[in-house]
User: Fold Olfactory receptor from Lynx canadensis.
Amino acid sequence: MVKANLTVISNFIFLGFTRYPKVEVIIFVLCLLMYLITLLGNIILISITVLDSHLHKPMYFFLSNLSFLDIWYTSSALTPMLTNFVSGKNTISFSGCATQMYFSLAMGSTECVLLSTMAYDRYVAICNPLRYPIIMNKRACVQIAAGSWMTGCLTALVETVSVLQLSVCGSSIINHFTCEILAVLKLVCVDTSRVQLIMLVISVLLLPMPMLLICVSYAFILSSILRISSVDGGSKAFSTCAAHLTVVVLFYGTALSMYLKPSSVDSQEIDKFMALVYAGLTPMLNPIIYSLRNKEVKVAVKKLLIRNPLCAFLIPQSKS
Assistant:
């Protein structure tokens, strides 16, 4: 059997959803809608957090970071698939595959860390409101956000370089719609124990540990909410936390089921649909969840509509 280094392969072929010809068009339409809604929703959310001075708070600073991240995340995963479907060419160059793999890993890893920092921000805001402006000052927020981005980008670089140095046994067909790292590893015919160990360590650091921090933060938050005598105050705090938890469950649930499942479990077909959830559905839901469940965002959107009537055609209005 002929072995070749991954860097020698000039092009990869995506199998995508070709095994499901009857639903392939439906999947394309759904992915296109998710991508467009993701772009529109996150761009609007970033715009209002920048333009409205009332949203110049740590929570919305992290939220705008999340929106910016989700735009890149979805673009790196869905844009090549949509382009290939329209052109009819399910191929990607080696450099394109490496770039796609890196950005998908970097954005996903950064989101893992960023969601935990957002939970910490809510913990300080609700459990230590008097010290909140001191703890979560502008400098601290910038440092936390920068740390999240650096962690995601560096871990992604380690994983990507580790995989691309391996050898494959002639096949260049990726059973996925993107250069997902687990799908690319299926092409490798040499010992991958070292790479799998690296991925396991990084996955444990970026998935269960941040999720544990989020659970602990929200345990304290829930305890504080139950002690709030004001009905309006408790309702507002609970609404904000419920929105964040919805995103957390969707994102971490699908990521955990993919990256920490036993190596003996072969579920590539399921993994494709799981990837659509955390790379397409979650980024689309982020701005919808935060805007529909947050009164401050609703007010900011209404102000934007009043100042710019043309935006009324682009922003769906919800009932208060």
User: Anything to note?
Assistant: The longest strand covers residues 11-14. Residues 28 and 208 are 32 Å apart (CA to CA).
